[in-house]
Each structure stands twice: as structure tokens, then as C-alpha cells.
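Section 5.1 Outputs to date
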Amino acid sequence: MMKLTRIQDHAIQALMAGIVGAETFDHVFAGIRFDEIEGTMLYAFARNEDVASDIEDSYSPLIAAVASRVLNKQVDVVVVMPKVLQ
């Protein structure tokens, strides 16, 4: 398991913001933290359960592609959990 650095977390966030646009990013991704990678699974924390589910359902493939590029490591699965489980 590898913890992401703050720079890696922010790089994924910045690229996602550029792709989905500022309004969607602020509405959906506000408060997200990309935390760690284990094998090909990326773990992230969102502000609540509904948002975590929405991000996982709607944006996982896009996040996986962006994270693979930033981390220079294959990401196949994105697991988004609410911050209360952190």
C-alpha cells in the first residue's frame, strides 16, 4: 500500500477539475482526498456517503485514467468512501 503525497492528491484533483469543469468539480468533488493506492486500487475519501457513491458510480473510469497518468502506475478500480470511515 502506498500513501499518495499531497502533490499527487492535488494533481489528480486539478486534472479532474479541468476535465469536468469548475462548477461540477465544486459541486461533486468538493472536499475529496485521494489517499492511497494498493495494487491497482485507488482509495479516496469524499465528504459524505451520497457524494462518495455518486463519484464512484459516475466518475471512476475517468479518475482511474487520470490517476494512472499522475501516479505513473496502472489504476483499475477507484473506491470512494465517506470521510466518516476515514
